[in-house]
UniProtKB/TrEMBL annotation:
<dbReference type="InterPro" id="IPR003010">
    <property type="entry name" value="C-N_Hydrolase"/>
</dbReference>
<dbReference type="Pfam" id="PF00795">
    <property type="entry name" value="CN_hydrolase"/>
</dbReference>
<dbReference type="InterPro" id="IPR004563">
    <property type="entry name" value="Apolipo_AcylTrfase"/>
</dbReference>
<protein>
    <submittedName>
        <fullName>Apolipoprotein N-acyltransferase</fullName>
    </submittedName>
</protein>
<keyword id="KW-0808">Transferase</keyword>
<keyword id="KW-0012">Acyltransferase</keyword>
<feature type="domain" description="CN hydrolase">
    <location>
        <begin position="1"/>
        <end position="49"/>
    </location>
</feature>
<feature type="transmembrane region" description="Helical">
    <location>
        <begin position="62"/>
        <end position="80"/>
    </location>
</feature>
<keyword id="KW-0472">Membrane</keyword>
<dbReference type="InterPro" id="IPR036526">
    <property type="entry name" value="C-N_Hydrolase_sf"/>
</dbReference>
<dbReference type="GO" id="GO:0016410">
    <property type="term" value="F:N-acyltransferase activity"/>
</dbReference>
<dbReference type="GO" id="GO:0042158">
    <property type="term" value="P:lipoprotein biosynthetic process"/>
</dbReference>
<keyword id="KW-1133">Transmembrane helix</keyword>
<keyword id="KW-1003">Cell membrane</keyword>
<keyword id="KW-0812">Transmembrane</keyword>
<dbReference type="GO" id="GO:0005886">
    <property type="term" value="C:plasma membrane"/>
</dbReference>
Length: 87
């Protein structure tokens, strides 16, 4: 799931877990470094900082809500437009 977050935000994702999987994931979704379950360790990696915004980081889930409203509007329009008849 974190790989998709890295891709949609075009940012590196760094996950630090006490007993889970720790990893560095780049902006393309590739796992660069990883420490497995219940393993101890550390890694050092240089991560670029970004100041730009992607559509998702700028607008978030509003795009999903708008798509839902459009589909709902079409369904309501079709139902009302047919007079409630199912031909």
């Amino acid at each position: 799931l974190l790989r998709y977050r890295a891709i949609e935000s075009e940012r590196f994702v760094i996950r630090s877990a006490k007993t889970g999987i720790s990893a560095i994931i780049d902006s393309k979704g590739r796992v660069l470094k990883r420490i497995g379950l219940f393993k101890r360790g550390y890694f050092i990696h240089e991560v670029p900082l970004k100041n730009n915004f992607t559509p998702y980081t700028r607008y978030g889930d509003i795009i999903v809500y708008l798509a839902f409203l459009i589909v709902l509007s079409i369904l309501v329009y079709n139902k009302l437009g047919s007079g409630g008849r199912n031909d």
